[in-house]
Amino acid sequence: MKRNIVIAAVTAAALVGGGTATALAVTGDGADGEGTATARQADARETGSGVQDDDARDDDAPDDDGARVSGDVTAAEAVASALRHSPGTAVSVELDDQDDSGPVVWDVDVLGGGTTWHSVRIDPGTGKVLGSHTEREDDTAEVRAALKGATVTAAEAAEAAAGKGTVTSVDLDEDGTSKAWEVETYKSGNAADQDWRVDLTTGKVTADKADDDVDGDDD
Question: Does the pTM exceed 0.70?
Answer without folding.
Answer: no
